[in-house]
Amino acid sequence: MSEAGRSGLYSDTLASLERCVALSGGKEKAEMASQFSSSQKHTPLDSPSVSNSLDQPTGTSKAEPSKIDKRAQSAHNAQDIEFIGYKDETQIAEIMALITKDLSEPYSIYTYRYFIHGWPELCILARDLLSGKIVGTIVCKLEDVIKQASRRKGYIAMLAVDSDYRNMGIGTKLVQTAIQRMRHIGCDEVVLETEVTNKDASKLYGKLGFIREKRLFRYYLNGGDAFRLKLYFAPPLSYHALPQQQFQSTSPSPQPSFV
Amino acid sequence: MASDDEVVKEVEKRLGTLAIREEIGASSSGTSRPERSREKWVDITDEFFESCQGLELGELAIAPNFSMFEAMSAIELMDPKMDVGLVRTRPDLGFAKCRREGALSLNYLPETLATLDATLSALVTWLEGGSLAQTLYTNVLLVNANLVNKVDILGTFGHAMNQLIYYINNIITTASVSEEEDFNVTNPYPCIPFQKDYKVIRIELEAIEASLESEAKMTNCADDDAAERLVMGSIAARLAFVRTLTQAIINLTPIHTIILDNIDKANPTPVATFRPNLRHTTEDLQTCLKNAVVMADTWHLGSRSERDDEDFAWLPAFEPDLNRRKLPATFPRKAEMIPRKRAIPYLVEMVQMLLRLPMEVPDAVSEPGSMIAYVREYSEAKFSTAFTRSVLQLMLFPLDDHVLGKRALSDLCVDSLKNALAPPLLDTDTGLLGDPGIKNMWSLMVSNMTKAFLLISQVFGSNLPRQREKLVHSISDFCILEMDADDLDKQCLRFCSGSSAPLNYNMQGGLHLGTFFISETLRLMRLYLESSFQQELIAPYEYTYMYWFYGDIVMKWLCSGNDRAYSYLANGLSSTGSKKGKTSVTKVSNKDSRKKTKLREYKAENAFLMIEMAICDGMFRAALALQLMGKIIVPMWEANSEELRFAHRMVPFKQLQPLCDLNYARYRRDSRLDSLVSGGHSQLLSDAVEAFDMARIQLEQGQLSDRYVAKGNSLLKVCKNNIVVLRLFSSGRMPNSRIHFEFTESPAYPMMRLQ
Question: Domain locations in chain B?
Answer without folding.
Answer: 4-77, 95-352
